[in-house]
Amino acid sequence: MSSQYIQHLKSSFLFQTLSEESADSFLQNSRLTNYDNDHAIYDVGDTPESVYFVVSGSVKLEVPMPDGEIMFMGVMPMYTLFGEHEALCSTHSVARIAAVGASEILVIPKTNFLRLFKAEASFSQALAQQLAMSMRMMCLAAAHHFNSSAEKKLASLLIHLADRVGDDSGEHVKIALKLSQDELAHMMSSTRQTVNKYLKAWKDQGWIDIHQGMIEIKQVSKLQALTSEELINEFGLMGA
Q1: Quick one: pLDDT at residue 232?
Q2: Distance between CA atoms of 68 and 30, rounded to whole angstroms?
Q3: Residue 161 confidence (pLDDT)
């Protein structure tokens, strides 16, 4: 595999300590795949035979609920590994993973991942930490989803997106994704009218601005005041 992709890989804390030889072995027989916006990388019920690494763009994780509602669980940005849960457990997925915007994904054979997991203690330890944090974040996100108002959900969603794919310039943070109000409403299981109401109110108050479909948060602290303090404190959202 190209040294370019090895450098991408080693930009993730999971792979920073790997030797060039180990990283190259991990990437053997991998392929780079391009996904358009909302294109599913794998879906509920699929049993992936690969793990995946985000080279550019980002992906979202959504979980269907028994009542038919779709719960948005978060965005995974560049240099994130995913699919490791299914690879370790040899089980089907309970989530839909799809691209957010045009994204490049390295598709890596599951056997390479399992071999690395057994051979490299530093990688295994870093992965265990990531899995533990991921599980706790999902539990908190689920609790927040069911117990928060639409206003809090939207504020939390914007802060989450800014943290994952934001261009930070101090108090102003531009979310580097073009998301329609319908897409934002889908992510928070609400309606476009509700999203429009709060975005307009926050823009009128000078908290956000919207340029060509991209949201810029001008007063991060105002949105943070509306969100779950526990989520912010646990996961360091917006530099906490």
Answers
A1: 47
A2: 35
A3: 87
Contact 130, 53 (CB under 8 A): no
Cα 52 to Cα 126: distance, rounded to the nearest angstrom: 17
The two tokens of residue 162 are: 């800014």
Number of alpha helices (DSSP H) and beta strands (DSSP E) in the chain: 10, 10
Count of CA atoms in the C-beta half-sphere (13 A) of 195:
19
Tokens of 48: 């992936």
Chunk the chain into consecutive blocks of 10 residues (it has 240) and report each block's average pLDDT, rounded to whole numbers. 85 92 94 95 95 96 83 89 94 94 96 96 92 78 72 88 79 84 86 94 94 89 75 42
| Helix boundaries (H) for 29-120 | 84-89, 110-119
Q: Which residue matches tokens 């030889």?
A: 21
Report which of 193, 208, 203, 190 is spatially closest to residue 154, judged by C-alpha positions.
Answer: 190
The structural domains of the chain, ordered by start, are 3-145 (2.60.120.10), 149-239 (1.10.10.10)
pLDDT at 148: 77
Distance CA 138, CA 146 (A): 12
Rounded Cα distance, 153 and 148, in Å: 6
Task: Give the helix, strand, coil percentages of the chain, each rounded to 5.
Answer: 45, 25, 30
